[in-house]
Amino acid sequence: MEYAKLGSSDVEVSRVMFGAWAVGGWLWGGTDDEGSVAAIRKGIDLGMTTIDTAPVYGFGHSERIVGQAIAGRRDEVIIATKCGLRWDREGGDHFFDSTDLEGRPVSTYRNLRADSILEEIDRSLERLGVDYVDLYQCHWPDPTTPLSETMEGLNKVLEEGKARAVGVSNFTEEMIEEAGRYGPVASDQPLYNMLDRDAERDVLPFCAERDVAVIVYSPLHQGLLTGKVTMERTFPESDQRSDKVWFHPQNRKRVLDFLEKVTPIAEGHGKTLAQVAINWCLCQHGLTAAIVGARRPEQVEENAGGAGWRLSEGELAQIRGWLDDLAGPTK
Ligand SMILES: NC(=O)c1ccc[n+]([C@@H]2O[C@H](COP(=O)([O-])OP(=O)(O)OC[C@H]3O[C@@H](n4cnc5c(N)ncnc54)[C@H](OP(=O)(O)O)[C@@H]3O)[C@@H](O)[C@H]2O)c1
């Protein structure tokens, strides 16, 4: 495994991080807790020391599962969680409606008010079973709260020793810049993978210039870039992938054709397509780490092999050319 410092903080993360959204089950068609705990522990054994979770992932479930997996191993792990997406308190900006794992309706709100953040951190620490987290991130921007107030809350979390560093997610460059005026921002967490490359036009160069780490989410485009989502695979309605445009048959076919071109490059390195997709991210300028979701130890074992080697400049350029030809998905 490779490791990197998180911006100007003293937190060091594994360049392949464990993403714990799917282990929460919500929007992923349910989950298997035993497999999840085993997957997280396998990651730690392989040096994938950093785990990214959030309260809203399974409405507390993901944080509890992470807590269970790391019990007795606190000194081996770096924990990143988030604030600002509430389902347990109304107020702020109504984000979206969904159902919980039992099929009950749930509304989520974007709320980055200082008092809400101070309430959330204590609940997260309790669920995780720890005294502090290493990275505390704003999950989504909240248009109803000034960033000065949000950072006031986050600075208090730092002062109280409940987090070692503060980060943001899904923020624009302007928002990152403004937040940085009120307190230290160690990292940003945008969407980025071979099929979603917007971040390389804005937040990646912006953050590289300002020593803000970039830890990207969905580097496998939620499994599609592993090549294992064949034309036959179907997803239940409770799995958000059932409605994702690149997963639609006509687009999935185009991605599978693209991956067929990448296969000889993977084979040349003795790697899998998933490992190439992760390594592609790690090779991009200004990109600190990739957060890869998984629910089974075998997946984690494969994903850990996304680091520790490099695609050549020629291979990166060739893949980029194929991606340019692939262009966007059709509706
Ligand atoms: N800040 C945000 O707004 C935000 C948004 C999204 C995600 N995130 C974070 O980023 C993490 C990763 O993103 P993500 O989970 O959306 O997408 P991802 O990492 O691209 O894909 C994860 C999914 O791909 C499949 N997969 C993983 N490894 C595999 C392997 N080796 N072989 C075959 N399939 C494999 C698994 O799905 P199945 O096995 O179920 O098919 C897994 O749940 C999340 O867990 C979360 O921590 C943050």
Task: Provide tags for this entry.
single chain; 331 residues; alpha/beta; TIM Barrel; three-stranded antiparallel beta sheet; 10 helices; 37% helix; 18% strand; globular; binds NADP nicotinamide-adenine-dinucleotide phosphate
What does the model show?
The protein has 331 residues and is an alpha/beta fold. It has one domain (3-226, 272-308): Alpha-Beta Barrel (TIM Barrel). It is 37% helix and 18% strand. The chain has ten helices and 13 strands. The chain has helices spanning 33-45, 61-70, 114-128, 147-159, 173-182, 203-209, 249-269, 273-282, 297-304, 313-326, and strands spanning 3-5, 12-14, 16-19, 50-52, 78-83, 85-86, 93-99, 105-110, 133-138, 163-169, 187-189, 213-217, 289-293. An eight-stranded parallel β-barrel has the order 3-4-5-9-10-11-12-13, surrounded by six helices. A three-stranded antiparallel beta sheet has the order 6-8-7, with no helix packed on it. Helix 1 (33-45) packs parallel to helix 9. The protein starts with a strand and ends in a 5-residue tail after the last helix. The relative contact order is 0.15. The model has no long low-confidence stretch (mean pLDDT 96). The structure holds NADP nicotinamide-adenine-dinucleotide phosphate.
Basic shape: globular
Domain count: the total is 1
CATH architecture: Alpha-Beta Barrel
- As a percent range, the share of strand residues is 15-25%
